[in-house]
Specification:
The structure holds 2 protein chains of 2 kinds. Chain A is mainly beta. Chain A is built from 5 helices and 20 strands. In chain B, helix 5 runs antiparallel to helix 6, helix 6 runs antiparallel to helix 7 and helix 6 packs parallel to helix 9. Classes of the chains: A mainly beta, B alpha+beta.
């Protein structure tokens, strides 16, 4: 294998300063609802298994220590009722930051607000979305939102140089599960370094209550050979294997799912022991009833699960390689 | 300055002055930190890739020996087998200083005879991958495997050399010009072994971690063995009174030592390749090594035949062991111990020793052979020696 120099040291820059600033200002966001599920810590029953998937649950799963910033990505801001013209404000700071992408492995990422993916942006259709973008990184960046908006808000020509700011402002539409990412060139580099996140637009008619989760499928090429070394949802490899997501059987689980994996043509979501309704892009009532969906980069949709049983249910990419490189987790379904 | 008489003890004092000044300059430079090189550019980031030295397969477990070849400390971050992250434990330190090693133990149900790739990723995300052509169980040190490696060594080392020595009676009856031809043949085969050992040593040093390797290590090993053998030949010669040229039993002993060092390296290479599953030791290969090495016995027998003096069977057996038994030792070392450095040193030593013996043989032939070095018998013998080694070497390739 050819020797590769690491490239982590040239990213120091102004990151710490910017990171210290108050990070997400969630406009009208109130406290989390009581129905919000939380990730849990598994007991000791699985710790002594030596091999196979049993070795990848709880303490045995090689993921990072519990991180509040990562946990925050799992739960979207609360949906608000339809109120055309209401202003929803968010602040995104591009920050160069070394992040831990697997237990014991760091990656010199480019992030929005310090995590890859960045924070979840949520609005109700016809809200006026206002996103204040400040580039605290070392390269020019933008934010390109998927959805319907004017050409001058598209994040293609509005390049913010390091130290510059730009405010994106447009009415949020259409409803559905969307995403945002940096569109500066080289595009591949700016995306795989971590500049992406979920963008949810709620329909005028509220969706029925559910335990809502966000999962952004991503991956990291830590040695720069154009192939990913680690796969995950919402950041670190095996995070939800180490800290299974606790959900209640009595209420629908709704996952806002997006694929922002670079280098690989497709990614997928597969759930064990259950079927789900999958709404592609979530902008219509059309759904598919399945246990596996395939997504190209930029594809996204909404998954709705009504668990019939309790216990530990695995979810993972059905590309076995991705699953074994970190894109695997568990739901801990309880009564 | 005033000239002092040569041999004055004060020259030792003067030799210290450049060293003292060097120390001053070094300290001065170190005190400036990076500011001098910083005039040009920032230093590039440090390399941070591990070396995977050896991969062993045991029932339900893979052991990966890693070394840090870099200047700075490296930490083991993640371990993969066939592109899947696996749980592991480290026997030794997780963070390795320069040239330090640890063994990573991975519980894993590997599949017999199938290719497998293991990867070690440093905490900075740089992955090193080693591909193994076929996973086979690594022999443990046991009476059985000890015996097995010993037998391999005997088969490829001792037996062929002993068989080759049986040419002695027939050589004793050969005409002087034919004896010269066989001496030259011995020179040819030793020249072949010297080159083979040298190229092996250079090849092995190339994959050593940078700071350990280098052709310098090969030169050092070869020089030491060359000079040691030169010294030994002078000692042996003084006992024989052959007028400044080594011959007879003394020369045969030198030839045996040169060949023995070569067989040490050869045994080590066979043993370690076999242990890590890189070499399938089929019947054909063993036979190949035997045919290849039988010529070595001839090389030892020829100077004895020329010496005319009677040689006891015990002496002959000793010579066969000197030349052949190191293959056993090599096979044990290669089979049970991981040391690429040792392999480089052995092959370098073999190269130096064989070269030295070529020189001794050359002198001997020049001195004794009818027609000297340029007679047809000598030239033909030398070329035949090289050609025979080449052709039989194809069998062991």
């Amino acid at each position: 294998m050819a020797k590769k120099l690491s490239r982590k040291h040239f990213l120091a820059g102004a990151a710490p300063l910017v990171a210290a600033a108050p990070i997400v200002h969630l406009g009208l966001q109130q406290g989390a609802s009581a129905a919000v599920p939380s990730a849990t810590h598994l007991g000791h029953d699985h710790e002594h298994a030596a091999m196979g998937h049993a070795a990848m649950v709880g303490e045995a799963a090689p993921s990072i220590a519990r991180d509040a910033a990562i946990d925050a990505l799992l739960v979207p801001p609360q949906a608000l009722p339809h109120e055309p013209g209401r202003v929803r404000e968010y602040r995104l700071h591009a920050i160069d930051k070394d992040i831990e992408v697997a237990r014991g492995v760091t990656f010199p990422a480019w992030t929005y607000n310090g995590t890859a993916p960045g924070p979840v942006i949520r609005a109700t259709q016809d809200d006026l979305l206002r996103v204040h973008f400040a580039n605290g990184g070392s390269h020019p960046h933008t934010i390109h939102f998927h959805g319907i908006h004017p050409a001058n808000m598209d994040g293609v020509f509005e390049i913010a140089q390091p130290g510059e700011t730009f405010t994106y402002e447009f009415p949020a539409k259409p409803y559905g599960m969307h995403l945002y990412h940096c569109h500066a060139t080289p595009l591949k580099k700016h995306i795989h370094k971590g500049l992406y996140g979920a963008f949810i637009v709620d329909p005028p008619e509220p969706r029925k209550p559910a335990q809502e989760l966000v999962m952004v499928m991503n991956a990291f090429d830590t040695d720069g050979d154009g192939e990913n070394n680690f796969y995950a949802v919402n950041g670190p490899a095996f995070y939800y294997a180490r800290y299974p997501i606790r959900v209640s059987r009595s209420q629908t689980v709704r996952i806002y799912l997006a694929n922002l994996t670079e280098f690989d043509l497709i990614n997928s979501f597969h759930l064990h022991g259950e079927f789900f309704r999958y709404y592609p892009t979530g902008s219509t009532d059309h759904f598919e009833y399945t246990d596996t969906v395939l997504l190209g980069q930029g594809q996204r949709g909404i998954v709705e699960i009504d668990f019939a049983n309790t216990g530990l249910f695995m979810f993972h990419a059905h590309q076995s390689e991705f699953a074994e490189l970190g894109w695997m987790g568990f739901f801990n379904v309880v009564d | 300055m005033a000239a002092e008489p040569r041999g004055s003890g004060r020259f030792r004092l003067w030799t210290l002055i450049p060293l003292a000044l060097l120390a001053v300059v070094v300290l001065g430079f170190a005190a400036t930190g990076d500011s001098l090189t910083g005039l040009v550019r920032d230093n590039p980031p440090a390399a941070d890739e591990f070396d995977i030295r050896r991969v062993e397969f045991h029932p339900g477990e893979i052991q990966i020996r890693v070394t840090n070849p870099q200047h700075d400390d490296l930490t083991i971050g993640s371990v993969t087998v066939d592109d899947a992250i696996v749980p592991y434990t480290v026997d030794g330190r997780q963070t390795l200083g320069r040239l330090r090693s640890s063994t990573i133990e991975v519980p894993y149900q590997w599949v017999q005879d199938e290719p497998i790739a293991v990867g070690v990723t440093s905490s900075t995300g740089i992955q090193t991958t080693k591909e193994i052509a076929a996973a086979v169980e690594t022999p443990e040190i046991s009476g059985r495997s000890f015996l097995g490696y010993g037998l391999i060594g005997i088969l490829v080392g001792v037996i062929p050399v002993a068989l080759g020595l049986l040419w002695l009676p027939s050589l004793r009856r050969a005409a002087p010009q034919w004896l010269a031809a066989f001496m030259a043949l011995t020179g040819g085969l030793l020249a072949f072994l010297a080159l083979e050992a040298l190229s092996e040593a250079l090849e092995l040093q190339a994959v050593l971690p940078g700071p350990l390797g280098g052709p310098g290590l090969v030169l050092l090993g070869a020089s030491i063995s060359y000079l040691a053998l030169t010294f030994l030949s002078r000692r042996l010669m003084s006992g024989e009174g052959t007028g400044g040229v080594t011959g007879g039993l003394a020369l045969a002993t030198l030839v045996a030592i040169g060949i023995g060092l070569h067989n040490l390296g050869e045994g080590l290479a066979i043993g370690s390749s076999f242990a890590v599953g890189e070499l399938a030791l089929g019947t054909f290969l063993i036979v190949g090594f035997m045919v290849h090495n039988v010529t070595e016995g001839l090389g030892i027998a020829t100077p004895i035949a020329e010496g005319r003096g009677s040689v006891s069977l015990g002496r002959l057996a000793t010579l066969a062991l000197v030349a052949g038994a190191p293959a056993i030792l090599g096979a044990w070392l290669g089979g049970f111990i991981t040391s690429d450095v040792l392999a480089v040193v052995f092959f370098a030593a073999a190269a130096g020793a064989a070269l030295e013996v070529v020189v001794e043989v050359g002198r001997h032939v020049a001195h004794r052979a009818p027609g000297g070095l340029t007679s047809g018998y000598v030239l033909g013998g030398f070329l035949s020696g090289v050609a025979i080694m080449y052709v039989t070497g194809l069998l062991a390739g």
